[in-house]
Specification:
Elements: H1 2-27, E1 35-39, E2 42-45, H2 46-62, E3 67-70, E4 82-90, H3 92-97, E5 103-110, E6 113-121, E7 126-131, E8 136-138, E9 141-142, E10 155-158, H4 168-181, E11 184-186, H5 191-199, E12 205-209, H6 213-225, E13 229-231, E14 244-248, H7 253-263
Parallel strand pairs: 3-4, 10-11, 10-12
Antiparallel strand pairs: 1-2, 4-5, 5-6, 6-7, 7-8, 8-9, 12-14, 13-14
Helix pairs in contact: 1-2, 5-6
Length: 265
């Protein structure tokens, strides 16, 4: 089965790259008249929708019996065994504003278990990918989470809430703690890229709440296969559908989780 996941993963990398190339080409002529609003500060464009359609069409050929959980709702039928979890453009606001970090994120569930993940960060032409029990890679090279054990040497990442502010008080308290104790905190604007950067050691930990399955499915598996730990904010395994996630190396995971719990009881 591992060999099948590998074959599917490598084929998915090519699908993600093609979608990313399409987005990069469209960005050259993109303007604000092509933006739609799904909700408060929640933006979408024809690029998101067309990219998703292209990805799903290719994945249907790759694995005909599969279903789809996709951000823009294209072909939202659930498969009996296999289900792709897709964000065709993670970092839409960055894309619209002309900022370079935006990603294609594609994960695969086999009977509700994550078995494959691909994150293609378009701006830097970096494809991060992993399959179950196969390790993690970026553009053909093995990647691993960092080995830092001191929070003062650690660079952390997060995402800011844009329309759900129910946990703002606890979020800001924990953010204050990280700013005072870590080497620094970054906000890229693409959770898929944040997770990929944890997997390759650029970030030492990442946390965020109010995320959707398509934001984290691919990146979570890549972090795990790179030797990292991924949990929800209670230390459990409900990070895919629980709308909150912590990803880190094994050395600072306990401290991060302890502090998240302290400030978000």
């Amino acid at each position: 089965m591992t060999s099948k996941y590998k074959e599917l993963c490598l084929a998915t990398c090519e699908i993600a790259r093609k979608a990313g190339h399409y987005m990069a080409v469209e960005r050259k002529s993109f303007d604000d008249s092509k933006i739609e609003t799904k909700g408060l500060h929640d933006l979408v464009s024809y690029v998101d929708k067309t990219s998703e359609e292209q990805i799903i069409k290719a994945l249907q050929v790759l694995l005909p019996e599969s279903g789809f959980i996709a951000e823009e709702g294209t072909n939202s039928t659930k498969g009996d065994r296999y289900n792709w979890v897709i964000d065709p453009l993670d970092g839409t606001t960055n894309y619209i504003q002309g900022l370079p970090i935006y990603s294609v994120s594609i994960g695969l569930l086999d009977n509700d278990e994550l078995v494959l993940g691909v994150v293609y960060e378009v701006g830097h032409d970096e494809c991060f990918y992993a399959w179950k029990d196969g390790g993690a890679f970026m553009n053909g090279e093995s990647i691993y989470v960092s080995k830092k054990g001191d929070i003062q040497d650690s660079l952390l990442a997060t995402g800011f809430p844009y329309n759900n502010f129910n946990k703002m008080d606890s979020f800001m308290k924990f953010l204050e703690w990280t700013m005072k104790n870590a080497r620094g905190v970054r906000r890229l604007g693409s959770a898929a890229a944040d997770l990929a950067y944890v997997a390759c050691g650029r970030f030492d930990a990442f946390w965020e709440y109010d995320l959707k399955p398509w934001d984290v499915a691919a990146g979570a598996l890549i972090v795990k296969e790179a030797g990292g730990i991924v949990t929800d904010c209670n230390g459990g395994n409900n990070f895919l559908f629980g709308r909150e996630i912590i990803a880190s190396n094994k050395h600072i995971e306990k401290l991060i989780l302890e502090k998240v719990k302290e400030y978000n009881p």
